[in-house]
Known about the structure:
By secondary structure, the protein is α/β, with parallel strands linked by helices.
Amino acid sequence: MQIIGLNLEELEDLVVKLGEPRYRAKQILDWVYKKGIDDFGQMSNLPALFRQRLQDRGLVVSTITVAGAVEAGDGTKKYLFRLTDGCGVEAVYIPEEKRKTVCFSTQVGCPVGCTFCATGQQGFKRNLTAGEIVDQVRKIGLDKKTRISNAVAMGQGEPLANYAATLKALRLLNAEYGLQMAARHLTVSTSGVVPAIYRLADEQLQINLALSLHATTDQLRSALIPLNRTYPLAQVIQACRDYAAKTKRRVTLEYIMLDGVNDGEADLVRLAELAAGWLCHVNLIPYNPVPGASYRPSPPWVCQRFLGYLQEHGVAASIRQERGAEVNAACGQLRQHLKM
Ligand code: SF4
């Protein structure tokens, strides 16, 4: 069993079962999250016998290890983590002047199968545990010797298809005894699991929601994101509007710009109509080509045309700055490259 992934109450119950007072749990979590120590032997304020008992019981702090990493000239660094069963998942560190962001994975592979995504082409293996999720962020902070300010569930997997573990991980990232990240700095990106969007809105957490929109008709969206056949566009947009109304958090509509696919004038007019009049922001994303997929990125002037039109029509919009293209920052590509 691993310590990362247990919340304070669960760890208190565990230490009490091992014959120690409850406060030992908080001491262990301080070592793990505040000091970045994984070895019970170094937790010097714990009795030596207790440290030994933890080890004898087969407990470990962490189970994921860094199997590879590549860093781009702009400081973006992509990590490949190896799990105990030999599977690999990726996470990306994105440094900016005012924030340090980690984009983390929630599943090994992905069941959604988006046609423009490297992970979607690799199939689905399993859900990650809460510990495997939160530890990606912690380990990257330790490697970069910095405080991670923002985290986004936008790596491999559909976070809302692994709801319980993802939510638990977000609570650990946010917890005072955990990584102490503000909830408003945490984002869940979904391809549109409608019932889970409503569930998330009821969690009483100020977490940001991002929707992988990418198309403005059901026909095209179903071709790009097969989940759209289960939860069509109108239902997904209504769920996002309800999320924004309930949480007062602005929803991000992610729109990957695909040349000749979703970047025509009619697409643009529909996109502006769909995003007008509610608390959302359109994020236009230059496409990062994936080996084996036939899509091409829209020319920069088309992205600018979209941006200008949306803003003229009162829609908050921006073009995502390309980061780390030389380290294949789109999800799934490092794992594919290293054949894991
Ligand atoms: S884009 Fe996201 S939801 Fe779609 S296949 Fe890739 S990882 Fe899964």
